[in-house]
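Researcher: Batch entry, complex prediction.
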Amino acid sequence: MTEDDNKDRNLYTDPWPPVRGDYQVGDPRSAVAVVTLASSLFIKGCAIFGQCVTENLGLEKIVANVISNCNIRFLIICGLESKGHLPGNTLLALHKNGIDQKGRIVGSKGAIPFIQNLPPEAISRFQEQVELIDRIGLVDTMEIEALVARHKREPFPSEPFVVFKRKAPLRAISVGEADLALGAGVVMDASAWLVMEEV
Amino acid sequence: MFRFKREQNVVNLAGVRMGGQPGELASVLCGTIFYQGHKIVEDEERGLFDRAAAERLVSRQGELSDETGCPSVLHIYARSSEAFSRYLDFTEKAWSGPFIIDSADPATRMAAAAMLSELGYADRAIYNSISLATDEAEARAIRDSEVDSAIILAYNPTQPGVDGSLAVLETGGQARERGLLDAARDMGINNMLIDPAVLPLGSGAGAALRFSVAAKARLGYPVGSGIHNAVSSWPWLAGKGAAAKRGCDAAAAAMQLLSAADFLLYGPIESAEIIFPAAAMADILIAEAVQDLEIAPSDAHPLHRLV
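Model: C-alpha cells for the complex:
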C-alpha cells in the first residue's frame, strides 16, 4: 500500500487493515473482500482474503477490517463451513439481522454467536457498506477469482470507520476475605489478586 | 506459590486423580489425536486414519506419562459420528485410560455420549464441553447418557474477563438464566473440570491464568485450559521457526500450571515430547515451593521420580 493509493481522500485507514488476523492483503483499492471460512485458499485480485473459523471473535475482526476501508463494497463468503461454529451462517445472520441487547447475533445457528467488541454503529455500518455474496461451500479458486473480478462499485461515501475496543470502566478493588495462603503470614484475595499481610 | 483456603475437590477418572492443592497431585496432560488437519487422518468425515501411526502416538504419550509421573488423557476429536465410531474402536484397543470426547459438531458429541453408554465405558469419558452453546437437545442427550464427567467451558462473550467467566458458571450472568455448574449437575455430571476458554493473545488470553486461581479459590473444582491455543493463534509467532513455537508452547504450559491448573489440554499429541518435561519441571518447582505450606506431593509425583 502506498500513499498515492489513498490520496484522493482517506478511503482506508493507515495502516490498513487495523486488526491483525489470519488473512492476506491484496489490493486495498479493490471493492471485494473474501472470507474462505475453514478452507485455506489463495485468492488473487481482492482487497483482503482469509479464513474465519469462529462465530464471534473471527467475525469481529472481519467487520472491523472491512468497514475501515470504504473501497470494500462486497464480501464473498466461500470455502467450507466450520462445523458447529458456523461462521458463514453467522456472518449472514449478522448482516441481515444484527445483534440483540445481549450482543447475540440474531438468527445465527452458530455455537456461541456473540459480538462483544463492536459498537452497534459498526454493525450498522457493515450492513450499509457491504453486500454479502453467499457462496458457502465454493472452493474453486478460479471461480472465486472470477466472482471477485465481476464485482465493482464506487467506494462507500463516508470516512473509514475505526473500531475502538470498548474499555471497561475501572472499578475500585475492595479487599475482601483472603482466599489463598502464601505462608509467612502472607495471604491473597484471589478475586482481587491482592497479596497482603494477614491481619 | 500458595495454598487454597477452600477444600479442593479431587476427581478420579478411570484411575487418574485430578485436582487438589497446587503441588499435591501431578498435572494431568491431555494430548489431542485426530484433530482437524492431523496428518495421520486420511478422511476426517469417515474417520479413516493411519492406525500404526496413531498407536505410536498414543503409546509415546503413555511412555512419557510413566516416565514423568504426569498422568495422561487421550483427547479424541472427531468431525462426525461415523469418524468417532472408528476412533472409539481404536481407543478401546490402544488405550486403557480416560479420554475426552470432543467435536465442534454438537450432533457428533451427542452421538458419542450415546455410543459410549451403549458400549459400557462411559465412565472413562470426559464430555467436552458443556457451555453456553449447550442447548436443550444436547443437555437431554447428556442426561440420557451414562457420561458423568465433563469440561465446563466458562466462556462468556457478554462479559469477557475473570468476573464474567465466574458469573457464567455460578449464575449464568447476562447470558443464561442459570449457571453452567447447576445446569451440568442436572445433566448428571458429577466430575466437573473447569476450563476458562483461552482466547487469542491480544483478545484476553491472559485472563485464563488469573481465572484459574480465582475459580479454584471460589469453587474448589479442578481447573485447566487449552493455553496452547493462545500460542497457535498468534500471527506473529506463525512466521517464526519450530524452535520458537515449541519454546512458547512449553512456556505457556508451565505458566498455566504455575497459575494453579490441574490439567492441560496441551494440543496436538505430537507435542507430548515438549509438554511432559515442561509440565514435570513445573510440578517439581511448585511442589518444592509449597513444602512449607503443609502440602505433600503424591507418591507418583514427578518430584519423587525425576530428581
